[in-house]
Fold this protein.
Amino acid sequence: MKRWLPLVVFLVLVGFFAKGLFLNPREVPSPFIGKAAPAFTLPLVGNANASFSPADMKGKVWVLNVWAPWCVSCRQEHGVLMMLSSSQSVPIVGLNWKDKQREAEQLLAQHGSPYAAVPDDLTGKVGIDYGVTGTPETYLIDQAGIVRMKHVGPISPDVWKEKFEPKLKELGA
Amino acid sequence: MIPELGHFSLIVALLLALTQAILPLIGAQRGNLTLMAVARPAAQGQFVFVTIAFACLAYSFLTNDFSVENVASNSFSQLPEIYRLTATWGSHEGSLLLWVVILGFWTTAVSVFSRHLPDDMVARVLGVMGLISVGFIAFLLTTSNPFDRLLPAAMDGRDMNPLLQDWGMIIHPPMLYMGYVGFAVAFAFAIAALLSGRLDAAWARWSRPWTTVAWAFLTFGIMLGSWWAYRELGWGGWWFWDPTENASFMPWLAGTALIHSLAVTEKRGAFKAWTVLLALVAFSLSLLGTFLVRSGVLSSVHAFATDPARGAFILGFLVIVIGGSLALYAWRAPKMLSGGSFTWFSREALLLGNNVVLLAALGSVLLGTLYPLLIDALGMGKISVGPPYFNAVFVPLMAPALFLMGIGPLARWKGDSLPGMVVRLKWALVISVATGILLPLTLNGFNPWATFGFAISVWILLTVLIGFRERLKHGGRMGTLPRAFWGMQLAHLGMAVGVAGITLVANYQEERDVRMNVGDHTELAGYTFTFLGTTEHKGPNYRAARGTVEVSKNGKKLFVMHPEKRIYNASGMPMTEAAIDPDFFRDVYVALGEPLDEEARSWAVRVFHKPFINWLWFGAVMMVVGGFLAASDRRYRIAVKAAARSGAVAQGV
Amino acid sequence: MKSLLFSLLLALSLPAWAGEAAPVGEDPAIEQRMIKLSEELRCLVCQNESLAGSHAELAEDLRQEIRVQMKAGKNDKEVIDYLTTRYGDFVLYRPPFKPLTFLLWLGPLLFLAIGGGIWFATLKKRRALKDIPVDEKQLAAAAHLLEDNK
């Protein structure tokens, strides 16, 4: 019977490989799902006297969009976010990540801002605290400040409809 | 025109491969000589046409034909000519075409050097290799056509990845493929044995030299890859247990077990089922490697641009070839009965022990490589398995195999005496252990890893010398010792040299990471490194900041090194080109980090002293030469000559 | 001639006022610790590189963060926890030993044990095999052949 073993082992591996073809080895789930969104206090872009902190959003369901002026995919996403900010009520907070050239203020003035607030993460430390590895990345945070979902990559209308809307409904937003 | 000619040649090659696969296999099953005789001409014809296709692709690269998609994606007009040529196999499509050409080459070689084999065996071997060719050529034509046109043609190419613009690119892939693909010969011989139900010592004698040569090429290919990585990637590391590296190492481990198992099957008619299974497994791992690096299921520095559609095709091909062969094995293996008894302390038993250890090591590498995929596929998250795991697991596993390497060649077949062996080896054991314990103490102090490495290297060296002494004592002379014996000793010695090199460099490497202004100096391992600044330098397809570092010892200037920081014109990709001063006893390695100020007068510089690192590559080369020596042993050549004579007579009838 | 003399003097005097190069890391001991730890961590924006060797910006940021943590007195385990809290186990090249990875870490031992079992079983079978009795005539013929081939 052990002569069938190599074939059996192989077929089991094939099963895994077949599944693997549909997976992306680089797509890493966030360890914050179900945990409290890390606290921070950052000055706002264009207004260093004011600040933003996740505690400010307690009681509301909101979205934290990590972006940067130098990020090409974020430009793509910008139009979608503009549409979303005017067509629905969930506030979008734009974390300006590692904007060394200080371009965010001008960019938003030029193209419009979909954001309720734009905290300025110049050093990228808050990004690290959130496990950010690149832009754009978006977190969905609930009324109690718990991270419910993370999306890596630009948000398209399809992504919003299929990934975000069901979750928002669940949370009663 | 030329690309279309290449495309057409590939189609003709596919038709010939189909002929080569189907007719002879049917012929062998039915005993039909005419159908079996189709194998040789079909195989040789197929080789001619895949070579034409390859030449057409190479021509397109050499003449900068950017209307060919593959050329536009992988080449650049300013690319030096030699790299424009190697770009032919720098992409997924091109490297697969190289695979197919090399398979054609091995097939043709078998068709020429097989006059002494029975017709049905030749028909089956060439037929099976034809099936594999069919799979790969079909894959090329359907999903990975290297001759796809880009219309309108690009003005210029997107350039070759700077990491590939190196010496290593010229020989590493061809040698690696000679090895990978060479195992297809052993695979085909195994299938032929299973189909015919005949598996005897003669079969082992026929397949052994082919397998050994393939193994030698694979050893060479892996060594070249490691050497290239050392020079081009990272900070002088030479093995990262990256999935692609593992994809080549696993067939090597299986191949090593196979050549040792073949020894037993040839000499004693034992382990037949094991040998057949190992032959199937070695080539299956080659195919698996092809799947892993081209399908996107694993993340690797080395992965080709991935595409799940291609992955699916290869997976289907794997199921047919590997699944089919393992099913055939399960069905027919019990029919192969092995003869001969042997005691627990005999060369057979020690070789079996060696194979058990090699396969356990192979299993571990496979497990570590696939584990992230397994966990992800089961929906249990994402983890990484990297060098810390492999180093922790592999080194202890290999230890018994390296120890047995000393005893196995000295043990008698069928049964030897353990007390007798202890007497023969007691001094070798004492000296090895003593060296292992004392040497680190004279260097840097107590170091268990270094102790182990030194002890094993000295052990293998001494047992090789004992092997010579005992052979000569029993009435041999150096000149009359068979090549197979020389090959084995040289290969084992090469292993010892490699292990010694690894032990020394891993435990005694020194480095310094410093900020250097013009005129600053730093000291390492007795050398003084003085940074003399950088100059702007233009290469054929890049701009570079070229550093000058003067190396001196005790005030005497020894040599100058020129590490570079390059930016490639077409892609804008930066690359660090380390400067290396090689020597039999050490490498001095200098790499530029980042410039520390705007004018780039001050730089972060990393200097290394790597003792005996060249022993790694040198040891590997000894193994390669040993393999070729063993394969050219008299008894294989006599068999060919005798068969050529009798074959000529038989044909005449 | 004068300019040659001048440049010679300049070259000779260079070592006098150029200094011993300072190490890149402000604190060499921390630097060494950081590199050793980073070699076991994954660069998250690379295809498959360690945090120690990668040139990527995020890798540099994380290496700097590790330096800061170590200077603040954190030990290796605490730094690892800091990173896995934020990035998950994916960032570790040495998989932690927990139920999820039992098979991974114990697998090699298992393979060796199974192999050992096969070794013993094969040997037991072999010893029990009766040898094929040798035909005296075959033995003589073999001796004859050996003589011929000498």
Remarks:
- Residues 5-20 of chain A form the longest helix (16 residues).
